[in-house]
Structure of Amino acid ABC transporter permease:
Amino acid sequence: MLDPGGMAYAVAPGNDALREAMNKGLDEVIADGTWLKLQKQYYPGRAIPKEFVPGSGKGSVEKPTSNRASSAGGSSLGSVWSAFFDFNAMKKAFPDLLKVGLPNTLILAVTSGVIGTILGLLLAVAGLSRHRWLRWPARVYTDIFRGLPAAVTILLIGVGFAPLGIELWGPNPYPLGILALSLIASAYIGEIFRSGIQSVDKGQNEAARAIGFSSGASMRLVVIPQGIRRVLPALVNQFIALIKDSSLIYFLGLLASQRELFRIGADAAANSGNQSALVLAGLFYLAITVPLTHYVNHIDKRLRDGRPMKQDSDEQVPGDAEARGIAGATDSETQK
């Protein structure tokens, strides 16, 4: 039995009752327009032959051109080139990748990155707390979300709530995907922040406390800013990983307007039997991640070498006058 999308459903030989029931059900959803609505919503690029009669098993299905068949008689190099670098297929997929896939990928990554950074900072502070009721939950949370594969976490959060009758955002899986990515990112970012905070010399905190800062103010104004500065390269690396992990959201069955780069490339490849659209999606990912990678290297080099001062000798550094005033007052007191 075939449906209009060219999908075959296997039925055991001799089980005519099941086959007829499946055909009948498929005919009903086609007749009332449900199938056509779902087809346009989830597979907008899949063309259906006009002569195809769905559900009944009659008519012919236009099958995607096989790479092997299309390259029969050609060289191996030529077949590989046509399968992965068909510029016509890339040109056809480019508008959807640019207008739909790229914005959705960036929305997923940036939103999840912001939420994950906030949660990660809270986890880092809780993990360094002297109170067990804060420290242990933070450690358990971090161990769980760092230990589980990202795909498992996304499926558990994106699909697991529905059978329990919990619909946080209705049937829309997009916010659940952002939530899952945020929780995953927060576990890693929390550890990055924790290592950065612990790398700050304890004397910094002690000096801040000695001049009257409270414990919270010392952490917020002195220790955390220095710790964040030291782990900026690791944070950008984590954001790059988040961009790539956004491709796993396709597990949740996004709508056509919600598809990210990988899903659009995979759909185009499945519809055409050619992998060129998927290669183009990969080039989009590289266009985002490669500049960020070089930016990370630049930040890391600047932090290691130290930023050179480019100020003239007669140019005052902010706060320099106050520092000289304090030093002058101290010298006067000493002379007296």
